[in-house]
């Protein structure tokens, strides 16, 4: 019986194990994770968990019994320290050696720390794990003055949650607009208006230089600005956990390099989820995607490859963010330099499409308008030139372009 | 006791265009498909979203928030992030009025 060993029991590790079980009832599946919990999805960490609302099935998607039923051997609290590819074994931090036939690295990413003086103060939080979220929630309920460093997705979600808990919130963003890595400028502006409208103080073009602990609170110096806060959260993105792979001589480059099916530079070694950098036909280059979607579905391609079927992962990229009463979803690549065709709908809803010079939709966004998600994805996938005059008319339904 | 409640008139429903209705505290998505009219609980089992605000096609209703899909005829969840099915309710049509039976 062939054994697949999966290192990293996050969303991607779980999905790889499940997909493999569906394909191969015989496979021996071992899922090792450093964290104390069974696999969980991270999106609720910056939203429901901070707010203290019930994340429903959003957090622990599977019950502990599920793993037993599926004969997936889940070992939490187990950290892999080294890979011995020649012996086809991994070595844990307690020196245990575990053999494999196929090895999947699903080690994800960690929160990027900010290399400024004072960032190691215990009142400066990062957010990646359930423990991080619980610690932050515990601190936020006292309604501290909060400074959020980074106006990206996670920073803004934290800002929105903290504001809803009654904290005074300041966001310091180094770039000149919010969510600059994933939305076009017009949407950044709407987002700024949303946050300001809810009483968040926003400072753009404002890079943090130093944090100085004070008797009461923290002093943050950013640009010409001095901000006092009781608590700070740093949300400036993630760093892929590639150390194991790199030390074992796998090809890495801000991520573990794989083909479209998750196969690394070494035979029988795969990478799944957010840690993988792979060629994506939609982009026409290699990408490392930091989103729920890739952790959910790319591991199925890995499981297929393990079973001998090479069918690459090629979904149109998608991610979402929930901030205040906004549900914003982004599809494809809405590049800032492309024309953004806005199609407002009733109730402040919006659909927007980024079209390239040839008139093809390359990216799209929906704001509280999830009903159009699937038609948009299909439009992007079809990749044909659209009649822009018609597209600009929001009364013309999207299906007319399909 | 299960009772029949009038929730819409047949003329309000067009094919695969879900209608959100409320019976007491229960939120219900009423959906007309080619083979009849169906009613399922309108609240996604993942987080909070009204399925009637989602996209419907081929008997599947997609959550507008994170795109879990549900089978309109059976209430079965078809893909994650949701894991739990939604309730279904019996539907009858009398004299052009649509009734849903809610426990
Ligand atoms: C706060 C937050 C909010 C988010 N919100 C959204 C959202 O709204 N929408 C969206 O699309 N995406 C969102 N994301 C992104 C999404 O959650 C991630 O892309 C996803 O978690 C990636 O899953 P993964 O399994 O690849 O990696 P991870 O979730 O990072 O899992 C990797 C696991 O491997 C373990 N591990 C690492 N090294 C070792 C080792 N050597 N030995 C054993 N175990 C190891 C780690 O402890 C971890 O548990 C959010 C992310 C965060 C952090
Ligand atoms: S609320 Fe429906 S999929 Fe998340």
Q: So what's the overall shape of chain B?
A: globular
The CATH homologous superfamily name of chain B equals Rieske [2Fe-2S] iron-sulphur domain
Strand order of the largest sheet of chain A: 3-2-1-7-19
Q: Give the tally of β-strands of chain B.
A: 10
Low-confidence stretches of chain A: none
CATH class type of the largest domain in chain A: Alpha Beta
How many domains of chain B? 1
- What does the average pLDDT of chain B come to? 94
The major pleated sheet of chain A works out as: 5 strands, parallel
What CATH calls the topology of chain B is Rieske Iron-sulfur Protein
Strand content of chain B: over 45%
**Strand order in space, largest sheet of chain B:** 2-3-4-8
Which protein chains make the most extensive interface, counting residues with beta carbons within 8 Å of the other chain's beta carbons? Answer: A-B, 22 and 20 residues
Provide the gyration radius of chain A in Å.
22 Å
CATH architecture assignment name of chain B: 3-layer Sandwich
Q: Which structural class should the secondary elements of chain B be placed in?
A: mainly beta
What's the end-to-end separation of chain B, in Å? 6 Å
Account of the 3D structure:
The complex is a heterodimer of chains A (402) and B (103). Chain A contains 10 helices and 26 strands. Chain A has helices at 11-23, 48-51, 64-69, 130-140, 153-164, 185-197, 243-247, 292-306, 373-382, 388-391; strands at residues 3-7, 28-32, 72-75, 80-84, 89-92, 97-99, 102-105, 109-111, 124-126, 145-149, 168-172, 201-203, 208-213, 218-222, 225-229, 231-234, 238-240, 256-257, 269-271, 276-280, 285-287, 318-323, 326-332, 339-344, 350-355, 361-367. In chain A, a hairpin with a 5-residue loop joins strand 24 (339-344) and strand 25. In chain A, helix 1 (11-23) packs parallel to helix 8. Chain A is globular. Chain B is mainly β and 103 residues long. Chain B has a single domain, classed as Rieske [2Fe-2S] iron-sulphur domain (Rieske Iron-sulfur Protein), CATH 2.102.10. The radius of gyration of chain B is 13 Å and the shape is globular. FE2/S2 (inorganic) cluster (FES) binds next to loops of chain B.
